[in-house]
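Could you help me review a protein record that somebody else here produced? What it holds is a sequence and that sequence's fold in token form. I have pasted the whole thing underneath without changing anything:
=====
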Amino acid sequence: MTDIVLTETYEGITTVTLNRPEHLNALSVELRQKLGEVFIKLKNDTETQVIILTGNGRAFTAGLDLKELGQQGMNTPSSGNETVDLQKAIREVGKPVIGAINGFAITGGFELALACDILIASTEAKFADTHVRMGVVPGWGLSQRLSRLIGASRAKQLSFTGNYLSAETAERWGLVNEVLEPDELLLYCQKLAKDITSVNQDTLKEVHRLIDYGWENSLAEGVDEERRTSRGKNRDLEADTLEQNRLNVQSRGRELNS
């Protein structure tokens, strides 16, 4: 039987691949459960520092499995078998998650992409929110997160129409950071992940937490939390440690600019 979620770990980077290409990686109950379990496991995996999430085939994921929903509806015994909150598992994994958006990211797939920390897209990527066309109210945060990323007017345009958004426009609107040719997508994400693995991991964890804290709270609360964290974490830094870190930063800067 083919694994519907593939994982591969190399040098601190774990690539998680949705593997239902014949169904455009539609998020069946089974796939949602399995993917959530993978992220819960990765949270405590000492070999994993950065996660890349992508899809196999033409889609990142086309969203919830509409064929399954058409047969069973939203409130079904099979839906009750899910014991993992997928969005929570991804957002609380505690490690940077890079979404390598290789193709369609539709509705639930769009919401899955928004759970990632960094989005990099292929030229083949397309985004759409079809909740209003399906008559289903979003429940994974899309109505709140999308407007914070691209602005309320653009979010309303997407969510009110259900129209597709191209990768190029997604980059222009600030939804994705880069758009690359399909054969360059994973290579770029792996390079980005490698850069992340090279930093101080304890500090990375705190900065990651602080940015997410600010996302969920007001600016004033975020600044206060940063101040408290900074005082607690920085007070024991020794001068020789800071000097060595300074030299390392300078050395890296020379390498990147040479």
Summary: Residues 76-80 have pLDDT under 50 and may be disordered. Residues 239-257 form the longest helix (19 residues).
